[in-house]
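Subject: design request, 129 residues
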């Protein structure tokens, strides 16, 4: 059982109990957040694809921590000119734990038992022969 959910414009494939690392969010540690931007759900028997999202489906996550990645070094150099620049960057992230996947409620569709209506054939066009 899994879902594909959108968080900050990026798509993540999640299952219950998963921990995912997303770009830094403004949520507090320990809070539970309900995400309703679910694009696809699969419960093992059938797959439901949203247009663009699945109505009634949601994913509940718990915020575990806010942290920063390891430092990424950027080094620029132009040969024979004495130009050297060293810079670093640490990207922030939020660690989430998926607690619950709420699937959309399925409704049974009633079939129309009305008699079939045959389409009338269009009159034949006279050719210009």
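Subject: RE: design request

Done. Sequence follows.
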């Amino acid at each position: 059982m899994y879902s594909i959910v959108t968080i900050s414009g990026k798509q993540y494939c999640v299952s219950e109990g998963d921990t995912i690392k997303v770009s830094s969010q403004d949520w507090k540690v320990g809070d539970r957040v309900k995400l309703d931007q679910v694009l696809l759900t699969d419960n093992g028997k059938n797959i439901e694809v949203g247009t663009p999202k699945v109505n009634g489906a949601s994913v509940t996550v718990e915020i575990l921590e806010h942290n920063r990645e390891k430092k990424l070094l950027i080094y620029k150099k132009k040969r024979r000119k004495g130009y050297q620049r060293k810079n670093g960057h640490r990207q922030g992230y939020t660690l989430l734990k998926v607690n619950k996947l709420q699937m959309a409620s399925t409704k049974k569709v009633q079939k129309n038992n009305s008699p079939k209506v045959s389409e009338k054939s269009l009159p034949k066009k006279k050719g210009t022969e």
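The mean pLDDT is 89.
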